[in-house]
């Protein structure tokens, strides 16, 4: 089976995680990072999950899964050690048109979760279509060394520059040329080295006639 890669916006959406072990914990923590509202069902919870419930970060709905728990849910993860229960949850979710991921049971999934490298708004998803999660993890670790925190900073900068450049009302071709020139310049590398003055110099050469680079960089975070 092949899977179509897609990025989904989860901010404010209800996610149900059935299970309370380490796998369920990892799923819940990741979903929270993307703004989801987490409900959990499990007889037992890890100490960390218990703390998250006490802090109001997630909601514990009790021990037993019922179909009604899927009301208003955007997606559900079945992460119990009971394959029969995971299959039942999958059937209920599919009938309701709810996205379902049953851990280690690909035939019961309507989506699979990739291994992720995240640097702010840069998200790199790695998947082996369920064939080898271990290989996906290995590739993720390799990519983490290639893509440092400067990529997060660079995207913040590009967002600010993009808004200023588009205000000029120039042609799409001209805008594309400028954006490519910035990306292909040494600005990203200079950010990685903490050389903000060099970044300013590089951008100043590219953006002659555009809004003053200093105005864009004046509140920029140095690191």
List keywords for this structure.
single chain, 223 residues, alpha/beta, Rossmann fold, Double Stranded RNA Binding Domain, 3 domains, 5-stranded parallel beta sheet, two-stranded antiparallel sheet, elongated
How would you describe this structure to a colleague?
With 223 residues, the chain is of the alpha/beta class. It folds into three domains: 113 residues, Rossmann fold (3-Layer(aba) Sandwich); 33 residues, Double Stranded RNA Binding Domain, CATH 3.30.160; 68 residues. Helix content is 45%, strand content 14%. The chain is built from nine helices and seven strands, in the order βαβαββαβββαααααα. The strands form two sheets. A five-stranded parallel beta sheet has the order 3-2-1-4-5, with helices on both faces. Strands 6-7 form a two-stranded antiparallel sheet. Helix 2 links the parallel strand 2 and strand 3. It is elongated and about 65 Å long. The termini are far apart.
Brief summary:
By secondary structure, the protein is of the alpha/beta class. The protein has nine helices and seven strands.
SSE order and pairing:
Layout: E1 14-18, H1 22-33, E2 37-41, H2 47-54, E3 58-60, E4 75-78, H3 83-96, E5 99-102, E6 115-119, E7 122-126, H4 133-146, H5 150-166, H6 172-184, H7 187-192, H8 196-206, H9 213-217
Parallel strand pairs: 1-2, 1-4, 2-3, 4-5
Antiparallel strand pairs: 6-7
CATH class of the largest domain: Alpha Beta
CATH level-3 fold name of the largest domain: Rossmann fold
Number of strands: 7
What would you give as the CATH superfamily of the largest domain?
NAD(P)-binding Rossmann-like Domain
The CATH architecture name of the largest domain reads 3-Layer(aba) Sandwich
What string gives the helices and strands in order?
Answer: EHEHEEHEEEHHHHHH
The number of domains? 3
């Amino acid at each position: 089976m092949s899977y179509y890669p897609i990025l989904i916006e989860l901010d404010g959406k209800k996610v149900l995680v059935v299970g309370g072990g380490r796998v369920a914990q990892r799923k819940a923590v990741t979903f929270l990072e993307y703004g989801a509202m987490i409900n959990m069902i499990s007889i037992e919870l890890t100490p960390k999950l218990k703390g998250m419930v006490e802090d109001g970060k997630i909601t514990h709905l009790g021990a037993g899964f019922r179909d009604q728990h899927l009301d208003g849910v955007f997606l559900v993860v079945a992460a119990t050690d009971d394959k029969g229960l995971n299959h039942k949850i999958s059937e209920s979710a599919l009938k309701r048109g709810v996205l379902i991921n049953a851990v280690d049971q690909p035939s019961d999934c309507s989506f699979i979760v990739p291994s992720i490298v995240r640097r702010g708004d840069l998200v790199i998803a790695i998947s082996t279509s369920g064939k080898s999660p271990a290989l996906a993890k290995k590739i993720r670790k390799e990519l983490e060394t290639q893509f440092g925190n400067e990529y997060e900073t660079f995207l913040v900068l590009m967002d600010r520059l993009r808004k200023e450049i588009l205000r000029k009302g120039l042609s799409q071709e001209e805008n594309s040329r400028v954006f490519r020139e910035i990306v292909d310049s040494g600005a990203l590398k200079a950010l990685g080295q903490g050389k903000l003055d060099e970044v300013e110099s590089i951008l100043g050469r590219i953006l002659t006639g555009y809004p003053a680079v200093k105005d864009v960089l004046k509140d920029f975070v140095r690191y």
